[in-house]
Every structure is written in structure tokens, then in C-alpha cells.
């Protein structure tokens, strides 16, 4: 690898050229080979491949229905159509595949690129974060994906030497996500406590 200003040899993890002191730019922001761009492109490809697969499945169902020409002409044959259920099933499938891709992402060595990966991971974690009160079963795969992004940001931070500072609340919420039984125990318990407080207050003001 060579410096893009003075053409002297530099290492991949260098941010500043040791020869000319100028910043090394490994990639243009719109470069296809840029690791972050490439990764985002791969995620988009995964989604479109999954969509193709689903469309094939629907086409197969339709070509295998043997109601014949008469049924088709008079519209009595039920054509399988792309509907909300398919869309939902597809997004669940894509969440799962994306989670797998994020978990298998190979980190670049350059600190500048690592910071870009960290930004990407943080943004996607925020985007896919599941609310505490959302249904667990429905959001299982989305949760899987958000945790994969969170984990990626942790790994990058470790590589960059940034300390992971998570508040007690963050830790607790993440723990409860993974143990949804306990989550409901706490929710029910909180409702009971609230109820007792209300009853207590009512009694207090009645006296
Ligand atoms: Zn240089």
C-alpha cells in the first residue's frame, strides 16, 4: 500500500502517513470497495435475493395449480398473490439473515474505517431496537438483529480501545430482553406495586 500523496509505503492501519504527515484516504466515500459501502451493498443483496426466493415460491404454487384454462379464464382459480403475510414472513426472514451477516462481518484494521463501522453499527442498532413493551414472539428476529449490531459496536469499541460504558439500566434492559419470562414477572409485579400505592393513597385521603 502506498500513500496517496507522496507514494511512499504505508501500512493499512495507518491514519497519517509517516513520510509526509498527511492523512491517508484509503477510499473515496462513494468507492464500491469501501468496506462500509460494500457491507451495506451486501445487506441489500441479501434482501433482494430473499425477495426473489419468495416470488419463486409463489410462482411455483401458481404454476402447479391444475385447474386448467377454463378455471383461469373464468377466474375461479385462486392465484397465490403477494400479500401482507408474505411481506411479514419475508421481513422476519431478512432480519434473521441480516443478523447472521452482521455477526460474520470481518472488521477492517484501519482505525478511521473502524470508526465508520461503529457509526453504522450504532445507527442500525437504534433503527432495529425493539421497545421493551413490544411483543416478544413477533419481534424475536428483529431483536436478534439489533443485538447483532450492538455486539458489533462493542467489538469495534474494544478494537479502538474505547471503553464500553453501559449504564445499569441498559444492562438490565438487555438482560430482560434475553429472559422474557422475567420481564413479565417484573411488569406484573410493578402493576401490583402501583395498585397498592393507589389504594394506599385513596385510603390516606379518605381519612
Ligand atoms: Zn505520504
Write a compact overview of the structure shown.
The chain is an all-alpha fold.
Structure description:
The protein is flat and about 75 Å long. It starts with 34 loop residues before the first helix and ends with a helix. With 207 residues, the chain is mainly alpha-helical. It has three domains: 30 residues; 131 residues, no CATH class; 40 residues. The structure holds zinc ion. Zinc ion binds next to loops.
Please tag this protein with its features.
207 residues; single chain; flat; mainly alpha; binds zinc ion; 3 domains
Question: Which helices and strands occur, and which strands form pairs?
Answer:
Elements: H1 35-64, H2 68-73, H3 84-103, H4 111-128, H5 140-160, H6 168-178, H7 180-206
The structure holds zinc ion.
Number of helices: 7
Main beta-sheet strand count, sense and barrel state: none
Estimated share of beta-strand residues: under 5%
H/E topology pattern: HHHHHHH
User: Could you tell me the mean pLDDT?
Assistant: 86
Low-confidence runs of at least 5 consecutive residues = none
Tell me the span between the first and last alpha carbons: 82 Å
Would you tell me the structural class of the helices and strands? mainly alpha
Small ligands present: zinc ion
Number of separate strands: 0
Question: Which shape, going by the Cα principal axes?
Answer: flat
The residue fraction in helices comes out at: 55-70%
> Over the alpha carbons, how many angstroms does the gyration radius reach?
26 Å
**Number of domain units:** 3
